[in-house]
């Protein structure tokens, strides 16, 4: 059953959370691991729901997910839950198709945010939103690359240093007009282009994308060693 979203004018946030987090080696998907007695996904959803410009959050889960019903905000009036696909891009595409079938207007801003990035701040959300509002150009949060980067061979031998002055670490949220993201991601999937984020699909379709420099502590939890670091950052925000 689809909602009628034809009157929605605020931001729609998509949270792909259908992954199993196999690299973590835990009994539950990583988004359900806990930081400060709250699941990672609960923290992420709470940050988005408290950001006033967001009118709707589309949570994309695995068909086999038996944990999502216990989320603190699962009954929130601004959350819709749908099933995801095999890859992240398929899950986001499922959400976009749901929005299309629900009548979402072409120019509504859509932001996609990783379920496992609970350290996103209100300030960075605001910076991204204001950048998009300025001229409706697609944009993403990112941070400069500060480490030395080495190019290597398949045998793990160093070839040369990679110039980092024009490189950034791509974070989420990533934001674009609904019609641009829907068309770009659909085209990438149809053409079997491997895209690991929304910006990859947008640039493949020729859309300009602006980088909005944000906090470097907007980390994505991927490995077990990321958990105490994320907890440290969250505690730091709370006490500041």
Automatic annotation (TrEMBL):
<keyword id="KW-0808">Transferase</keyword>
<dbReference type="GO" id="GO:0050518">
    <property type="term" value="F:2-C-methyl-D-erythritol 4-phosphate cytidylyltransferase activity"/>
</dbReference>
<dbReference type="Pfam" id="PF01128">
    <property type="entry name" value="IspD"/>
</dbReference>
<comment type="function">
    <text>Catalyzes the formation of 4-diphosphocytidyl-2-C-methyl-D-erythritol from CTP and 2-C-methyl-D-erythritol 4-phosphate (MEP).</text>
</comment>
<comment type="similarity">
    <text>Belongs to the IspD/TarI cytidylyltransferase family. IspD subfamily.</text>
</comment>
<keyword id="KW-0414">Isoprene biosynthesis</keyword>
<dbReference type="GO" id="GO:0019288">
    <property type="term" value="P:isopentenyl diphosphate biosynthetic process, methylerythritol 4-phosphate pathway"/>
</dbReference>
<dbReference type="InterPro" id="IPR018294">
    <property type="entry name" value="ISPD_synthase_CS"/>
</dbReference>
<dbReference type="InterPro" id="IPR029044">
    <property type="entry name" value="Nucleotide-diphossugar_trans"/>
</dbReference>
<feature type="site" description="Positions MEP for the nucleophilic attack">
    <location>
        <position position="164"/>
    </location>
</feature>
<feature type="site" description="Transition state stabilizer">
    <location>
        <position position="23"/>
    </location>
</feature>
<feature type="site" description="Transition state stabilizer">
    <location>
        <position position="30"/>
    </location>
</feature>
<dbReference type="InterPro" id="IPR050088">
    <property type="entry name" value="IspD/TarI_cytidylyltransf_bact"/>
</dbReference>
<dbReference type="InterPro" id="IPR034683">
    <property type="entry name" value="IspD/TarI"/>
</dbReference>
<dbReference type="InterPro" id="IPR001228">
    <property type="entry name" value="IspD"/>
</dbReference>
<feature type="site" description="Positions MEP for the nucleophilic attack">
    <location>
        <position position="220"/>
    </location>
</feature>
<comment type="pathway">
    <text>Isoprenoid biosynthesis; isopentenyl diphosphate biosynthesis via DXP pathway; isopentenyl diphosphate from 1-deoxy-D-xylulose 5-phosphate: step 2/6.</text>
</comment>
<keyword id="KW-0548">Nucleotidyltransferase</keyword>
<protein>
    <recommendedName>
        <fullName>2-C-methyl-D-erythritol 4-phosphate cytidylyltransferase</fullName>
        <ecNumber>2.7.7.60</ecNumber>
    </recommendedName>
</protein>
């Amino acid at each position: 059953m689809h909602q009628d979203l034809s009157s929605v004018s605020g931001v729609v946030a998509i949270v792909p959370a259908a992954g199993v987090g196999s690299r973590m080696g835990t009994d539950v998907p990583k988004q359900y691991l806990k930081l400060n007695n709250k699941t990672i996904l609960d923290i992420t959803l709470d940050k988005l729901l408290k950001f006033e410009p967001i009118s709707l959050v589309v949570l994309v889960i695995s068909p086999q997910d038996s944990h999502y019903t216990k989320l603190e905000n699962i009954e929130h009036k601004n959350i819709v839950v749908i099933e995801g696909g095999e890859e992240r891009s398929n899950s986001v595409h499922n959400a976009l198709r749901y929005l299309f079938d629900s009548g979402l207007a072409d120019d509504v801003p859509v932001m996609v945010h990783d379920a496992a990035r609970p350290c996103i701040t209100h300030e960075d959300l605001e910076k991204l939103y204001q950048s998009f509002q300025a001229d409706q150009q697609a944009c993403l949060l990112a941070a400069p690359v500060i480490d030395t980067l080495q190019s290597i061979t398949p045998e793990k031998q160093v070839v040369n240093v990679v110039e980092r002055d024009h490189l950034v670490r791509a974070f989420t949220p990533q934001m674009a007009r609904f019609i641009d993201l829907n068309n770009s991601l659909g085209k990438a999937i149809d053409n079997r282009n491997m895209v690991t984020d929304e910006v990859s699909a947008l640039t493949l379709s020729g859309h300009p994308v602006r980088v909005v420099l944000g906090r470097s502590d907007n980390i994505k939890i991927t490995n077990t060693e990321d958990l105490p670091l994320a907890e440290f950052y969250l505690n730091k925000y709370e006490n500041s």
